[in-house]
Specification:
The protein is an alpha+beta fold. The chain contains 4 helices and 5 strands. The longest helix has 10 residues, at 107-116. Keywords: 2Fe-2S, Iron, Iron-sulfur, Metal-binding.
């Protein structure tokens, strides 16, 4: 699975491809919001612009989906590396810095440490569930799929 490396929190979190970055962070207890965002965030609609993250260089290219029209409008005066977590879907492993507008005491040191360990690439698709096993008839044979009851279920082996 793709891994999201949260630099400020020094945590790696696995997620499924296509999962929303904000939802993964909140599920894992990662703090995306400052005071303003905790008091009045939009719940992931891209309107309050309080769930900023910075995509750190060194991650996979195209690790997140393209910027949405909402992001392009809301982030037009922000650095190119910033994204709204609520609008970004994770496609590949990525390194992000939460709340980039808040200072980080040893920013360069923390970023250098985060870059020292390579990010696992992980699969780029959802896992395929195993095929459902066919139920066996009472006599140990597989039921005839063409023999169904009026309710659409499989008839017993004796046809009743």
């Amino acid at each position: 699975m793709p891994v999201i490396r949260f630099v400020r929190e020094q945590r790696d979190v696995e997620c499924y491809p296509g999962e929303n970055l904000r939802e993964v962070a909140l599920r894992e207890g990662i703090e995306l919001y400052g005071l303003k965002g905790r008091l009045g965030n939009c719940g992931g609609c891209g309107q309050c612009i309080t769930c900023f993250v910075e995509v750190v260089e060194g991650g996979a290219a195209n690790a997140l989906t393209e910027q949405t029209a909402v992001e392009q409008l809301k982030l037009r005066r922000r650095p190119q590396s910033w994204r709204l977590a609520c609008q970004a879907l994770v496609q590949k492993s990525v390194m992000v810095l939460t709340r980039p507008q808040v200072g980080l005491a040893d920013r360069e040191g923390d970023l250098a440490r985060a870059r020292t360990q390579p990010l696992p690439e992980g699969p780029t698709a959802w896992p395929v569930p195993p095929d459902a096993e066919e139920p066996e008839a009472e006599d140990g044979t597989a039921p005839d799929p063409s023999a169904t009851s009026d309710e659409g279920g499989v008839l017993p082996a004796d046809g009743r």
